Amino acid sequence: MTGRPYRPEPFAAAVTGIGLVTAAGAGTEATWREVSAPSAAPSVPHRPELHGLPCDFMYTITGLDPRELLGVATARLMDRFSQLAVVAAREAVADAGLDPSAWDAGRVAVVIGSAHGGLPFYDEQHTTLTERGARRVSPKLAPLTVVNGAASSVATDLGALGPSQAVSTACSSGTVALGTAHQMLRTGACDIVVAGGAESVCSRLLIASACRLKAVSTRRDAPETACRPFDIHRDGFVVGEGAGLLVLERPEHARARGATVRAHVAGYGAASDAYSAVAPDPGGLGIERALRSALADAGLGAGDIGHVNAHGTSTVANDLIEATMLRRVLGEHPLVTSTKAMTGHTLGAAGGIETALTVLALQHRLVPPTVNLDAPDPAIPVDVVRKEARPGLFDAAVKTSLGFGGHNAALVLTRA
Amino acid sequence: MSTAEEINTLLVANFGTDPLAIRPEVSLRHLRLDSLALEELRLLIEDRMGIDLDDVQLTSRDTVGQLVDAVHRKAAA
Questions:
Q1: Buried-state track A79-104, b at ≥16 Cβ within 10 A, e below 16
Q2: Is residue A63 very low, low, confident or very high in pLDDT (cuts 50, 70, 90)?
Q3: Is the pTM of this model over 0.90?
C-alpha cells in the first residue's frame, strides 16, 4: 500500500528556458511581473461563445494574436492550444540560448500536456455537422483536435526529431509532462526536452457541462474576483487559456554549452486516487503519496521546502483537501500560493505555467500573492501568501497538481 | 471577380500563399497544397462560389490553371 518505488540515483534536470503565454501576460517577464505584483485586475471577459451559461467568463489572453504571430501558413493546421504552445516553445528555446538550426535534433524531445486538445474546433465542427451536413465538415478535424496536436506542432516548428508525445491526465497534465521529461532525461533518451502544458478551451460544450457539474464559479457579476483560492467564499474554478513550457536539459549538456541554469527539477512523484472520476480523495491520500514520492526522489525532507505553488483551484473541496495534506506532509513553514487567480485554471496547461512560476519564485526568492484571497478560510491550515508577494530565503519548492480521474503529481524544484 | 481571382484570394487568406507564386503553370504541390489542404480548399471554394466540386478530381500534381479551369466549368454549368 505504500507504493514505495525503486529509487534510482538522484537526478536533477537543468531548467534552462521558460516560455509563457497567459492571461496575465504575453511572455515570461510580462506574466511574472503581473503575477508577482499585480498592476490591474486580471483579464476575465464575458465570452460571446458562452453567452447564457451560468459561467460565461474566462481568463483570456489579450495583446497577442498567435495566428498573426505564426502566420496563416503555420497556424492553419493548429487549434488555438497548439498555436499558444508554439509561441511559448519559441520563447523557451530562445531563452535557453538554443539554436534549432544548430542543435543535435535527434536528441531533442517534446512532451506537452493538454486535457482537452482542440475541443473548440470539435465543438464548431459538430455544429457544422448538425446544421449543414456531413459534406461541410472540415477534413482538418483530426489533426486539429487530437491532444498531441501541441506536441507535434512544436516538434515540427522547432525541427525536434527526438521522441515527442502528449500527456493527458486532466488538470495535472502539464506537471506529468514535466515529470515525464525528467524521467526521459534521467534515462538518457535525450539531452533536451521542451515540456509543459497548453490549453485553450473556450468551448460552449465543455463549459455547459462544467456548469452542470457545479465545478466552475458562477459569479457573473464579478468575473475578475470569481477565482479566489483558499477564500471562505470560493465557489469554483474559472477556466483560463495559456501555455507554459520549460526547456529541461541533462545537467552535463547544459554545463557543456555554458547555459544559464534557472533552477533544477530535482524530483518527481505521481500517484492515483483510484477513487472518483471528478472528486479528489477526501483524505488527500493520492496527492500525499505523489508529494512524498517527489520528495524522496529529490532526496529532500519537509524542512527543506520553503515554498509551494499549490493546485489551489478555488473549489471548496480541492483547496481544503490540498491544504490539509500540505500541512500534514510539509508542516506550517512553507509559503503557499495559488497563482490561478491571475491566470485562471488553465487545466492541462496549469502544471506547465505554474512550474514556470515556481522556477521564477526560486530565482527571485519571492512568492507571488494569492489574489482575491480577501477572507481566508479558517479551516485552511497553511501559510497562504496574500495581498502582496512575500520574500523568503528558500532553496527548494514544490509544485502540486491534481487531475480529474484522480491523477496526482508533484515536482520538487531547487535553486540553481 | 473572376474564378482565378476568387481562388487566389482564398489561397492567400487561408493558406498564406505568396500571391506572386500563384501562376497558371505552377503545380499545387509547389504551393505546398497537400491532400489535406486540397480538401480544405475544395470546401472553401464550394462555400465561396456556391458550387459542388464533389466529382472533381484534384491532386497536388495539378496546376493552378487546371484547378481554375475545373472550377470555372462547374461555375458555368
A1: bbbbbbbbbbbbbbbebbebeeeebe
A2: confident
A3: yes
